[in-house]
Amino acid sequence: MDIDGFWELVERSARETGTRQARVAWLKNQLSGLPAEEIVDYDVWFTVCANRACSWDMYAVFWTITGFGSSDGFEYFVNWLISRGRDAFEKVADCPDRILELPEVQRLFELSKNFSHERTTWGRDGKFRLRRVTRIRRELWPSEDYPKFESFAYVTFEPYKATGLETDGLGDAVRARGVHSKFPFLTYHAEPDGEEWDFADEAEFARRLPRLARHYGLT
């Protein structure tokens, strides 16, 4: 399986299913019909793509959009980015600031705007009286829209085991191809690309991620 075959499976899984759970099941089913070598191919290309997106600037994007920093969360965010398909991934992988161009991210911002409704009642004398905040739904973003997709990275495990090989050997097979994952994030053997920087430094943020800075009012 080459890189084109990898992306074809990723994108078909989106076209032919309606939920993330169904998508994972579809990929497992497709991979189960392949020999072990091609399953390793898929995992190799997934790892190569994830490595491309493992950078300090991409982590800043994740941290800003989701509102928190997390090693595991960042990995699941990168999984989600890959799941968006080749065009979206290529647009953002080497230029994280273009994340705002993705329709999925624009939808997240719209959902954030509509998350709650605020109403203030004032007294006749013009003084503050009562403020009510009503949430439209229980969560800021529905689970199907949330920018993380942990299980998307695990679709090769069961198909690989079904070939009669041990699941633990899948990682070894990928590394034998010369591909080493940069995840888990921020471990001693897997540093992200680029230089670490202070995300709270607004000037540096605006220099590195100008579009995102403008969106959040930092410039």
Poorly predicted sequence stretches spanning 5 or more consecutive residues: none
Gap between N and C termini, in Å?
Answer: 45 Å
SS-based class? mainly alpha
Biggest sheet: strands, sense, closure?
Answer: 2 strands, antiparallel
The radius of gyration computed from the alpha-carbon positions, rounded to a whole number of angstroms, is 21 Å
Strand-and-helix sequence, N→C? HHHHHHHEEHHHH
Total number of beta strands: 2
Task: Provide the residue-averaged pLDDT.
Answer: 90
Range of helix content: 40-55%
| Proportion of residues in extended strands | 5-15%
Large-scale geometry: globular
Biggest sheet strand line-up: 1-2
User: Helix tally?
Assistant: 11
What does this structure look like?
The protein has 219 residues and is mostly helical. 52% of the residues lie in helices and 7% in strands. It has a two-stranded antiparallel ribbon. Helix 1 (3-15) crosses helix 2 (20-32) and helix 3 (36-52) crosses helix 9 (168-176). The chain is globular, with a radius of gyration of 21 Å. It starts with a helix and ends with a helix.
List the helices and strands and how they pair.
Blueprint: H1 3-15, H2 20-32, H3 36-52, H4 56-66, H5 71-83, H6 86-93, H7 103-113, E1 116-122, E2 128-135, H8 157-162, H9 168-176, H10 202-208, H11 210-215
Antiparallel strand pairs: 1-2
Helix pairs in contact: 1-2, 3-9
